[in-house]
Write a structure and sequence with these properties.
213 residues, 6-stranded parallel sheet, 6 strands
Length: 213
């Protein structure tokens, strides 16, 4: 039996293609699109220039922004159509642990505890993977100025954080896709194979290790 999710989250490190895929799924499946809105974070360009100086402000802005989006979702009509998001709330702690020092992380955790209480969680997660070299190439090609200074070490640590998190993820059915050699954002054949996989994904079933489409 296939899964009929109401709330799908597409996740993965920067440059992996999660926003493009989320837009495509929402459009083709007639769903509402929720985007994390990185461009709306005024602290993000400064973070990439000087991570230590802007890490806490960047992280707190994202925490509040994402929580507000999901809070509006929880207050919406339960019979509204499918929602597809290019983020999940759990990612916030991943980035916080990666970028904040001990005192900042303690403050962040206090705020996080109050902000995320009773927020809706996805009932299907699509986790996109790619190695750092592939991510750097995609980041370069999309040409967002403040992202061009992201170094390989940061990407490697981010990839490792995602891998460790999803290795033990059991909160929802999980589809893990290695995108290094497939194009599910633009390619028609790979995308259709992804949809076929989703149709076969039953409740509580996790595909791990990563599948190759």
């Amino acid at each position: 039996m296939g899964l009929d999710p109401r709330f799908v989250a597409v996740e993965g490190p920067i440059g992996v293609g999660k926003t493009t895929l989320a837009k495509r799924l929402a459009g083709d499946l007639g769903g509402e699109l929720l985007l994390e809105g990185a461009d709306g974070n005024p602290f993000l360009p400064g973070f990439y220039e000087s991570p230590r100086a802007h890490a806490l402000s960047t992280q707190l802005f994202f925490l509040m922004q994402r929580a507000e989006q999901l809070r509006r979702l929880s207050q919406a009509d339960l019979f509204s159509p499918l929602r597809v998001a290019d983020f999940m709330m759990d990612k916030d702690r991943l980035f916080a642990e990666l970028t904040l020092n001990r005192d900042e992380l303690s403050l962040y955790e206090q705020v996080h505890t109050h902000v995320v209480d009773r927020l809706p969680a996805p009932d299907l997660v699509i986790y996109l993977q790619a190695p750092a070299a592939v991510l750097r190439d995609r980041i370069a090609r999309r040409g967002i100025a403040y992202e061009q200074g992201i170094n390989r070490d940061y990407l490697e640590r981010l990839i490792d954080s995602y891998s460790r998190f999803f290795a033990n993820y059991e909160a929802a059915p999980l589809l893990i896709v290695n995108t290094a050699e497939v194009d599910i954002a633009q390619g028609e054949n790979d995308y259709r194979r992804l949809l076929d996989r989703l149709g076969c994904l039953g409740p509580g079933h996790t595909f791990f290790p990563p599948i190759a489409l």
